[in-house]
């Protein structure tokens, strides 16, 4: 099966905590794929604010997608993503998300 595309418009780099490959190397590989024209834009998934900032220093990031489960560490990821995007939400608004 083929997508019949010359270029995938957006490709997510999904970070797994147990990965043996350093994050910066993964980002560099995505940038290389983009530079080769195989992907259009780079997106991130399952990353921390620090990782987002590190990647953003190297390349533009189309979007960040993190799992959001209130009461877990994923909820703190959501707060980090909002802070990185300079979005200000109070605790009540954040509670409405969950």
Characterization of this structure:
This protein has 98 residues and is of the alpha/beta class. The chain has one domain (8-97). Helices cover 41% and strands 16% of the residues. The chain is built from 4 helices and 3 strands, in the order E-H-E-H-E-H-H. A 3-stranded parallel β-sheet has the order 1-2-3, with helices on one face. The termini are far apart. The mean pLDDT is 80.
Radius of gyration: 15 Å
What general outline do the C-alpha atoms trace?
globular
State the total count of DSSP E strands.
Answer: 3
Structural class: alpha/beta
Q: How many helix segments? A: 4
Percent in strands: 15-25%
Largest sheet: 3 strands, parallel
Series of H and E elements: EHEHEHH
Share of residues in helices: 40-55%
- Averaging pLDDT over every residue, what do you get? 80
Which regions are unreliable across 5 or more consecutive residues at pLDDT < 50? Answer: none
Distance between the termini: 38 Å
**Count of the domains:** 1
Write out key terms for the chains shown:
98 residues, alpha/beta, 3-stranded parallel sheet, globular
Structure described in brief:
Helices cover 41% and strands 16% of the residues.
Write the layout of secondary structure elements.
Elements: E1 8-14, H1 23-35, E2 39-45, H2 49-56, E3 64-65, H3 73-84, H4 91-97
Parallel strand pairs: 1-2, 2-3
